[in-house]
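FYI - complex with 3-isopropylmalic acid, inputs then prediction.
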Amino acid sequence: MDLHIAVLPGDGIGTEVVDASMRVLDVVAKKFKHTVHAEFADVGWAAIDKHGTALPASTLEICRRNAAILFGAVGLPDRDQTLPQKQRPERVALLELRKGLFANLRHVLLPPGLASRCPLKMELIKNGIDIMIIRELTGGLYYGQPQGVSGTAPERKAVDTLAYSEHEIIRILKVGFETARKRRKRLTSVDKANILATSQLWRELATAMGKQYPDVHLEHMYVDNASMQLLRRPSEFDVIVTENTFGDILSDEASMLAGSIGLVPSASLGAPDSQGKSAVPFYEPIHGSAPDIAGQNKANPVATILTVAMMLNYTFGLAHEAAAIEKATFAVLNAGEKLTGDLGGKATCSEVTDAVIAGL
Ligand code: IPM
Ligand code: MG
């Protein structure tokens, strides 16, 4: 099979971790007789320095002609400060590339060998942690209008709008139910229905949809309670479905249950529009550019390697290839000999990658 992918390493550790994951992809492709056609493109500060914008037209064009986008990270806080909000890489590049991709799947899995890295007590995690967080990615506060600051100091006012249509809620809930059906059949729908109108609509629609999925156990949970229950009984969560901002926050919290944010991959997926066209699926580790360790071969490549596995699974339908990557990666983590600094080890990014490749 021909695997056409746009590769956007971006800023900070983005280049190192994407490089590592591409080495793994090349080995898997060879082993299973696929051909990788990778087109690299600039994004983030790398693009601003060369083209004057974080998302040049040439990059967008490359993204559009490939079947999937593999993305590292963008943004360098020190340099971001020098730009007006609207020109910063996170907004210009990330939010733009995610357009149309409403379902963001973030997989939090604690490898048994890393149990000691999980900050929770053993008795709380002894049944394992395997949570799929499904975050709505194209609505809510991130895109709602009006948004902005108006007036003059000291009388300025800022507004963000939290809005969801029924259509937007229904399509993400459906991803939640379908995903739960393929897993342990438990779906936690997270909202703030005691206060927010969007959440009240969300809960009503989730309850109604639940009737079509009698095999899936649906529970509703307020977001504040969910943030607590994740620490109190993490093993009981299977699939969580929630709106954009809640999902952003809960997924960072949950990532620590896996031992490190450097372990959590993600896939952002859309659906065909009325003309049958869908946005190009977007794959990224959930961590950022980590400028403090960039360029030192210290970054944990695991999140991006697992992101490549998600890409093989969801875009190319190559489940065996994805499973091979996951198996080799978790073997390295469970063995515990080659771990990066975020997991208390001393191995470099390339050593961890070599170990995964050796296992393949
Ligand atoms: C994430 C990040 C982004 C988000 C930022 C960088 C805009 O935190 O992918 O979780 O909030 O979506
Ligand atoms: Mg985040």
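The CA atoms of residues 273 and 279 lie 9 Å apart. The two ends are 19 Å apart (CA to CA).
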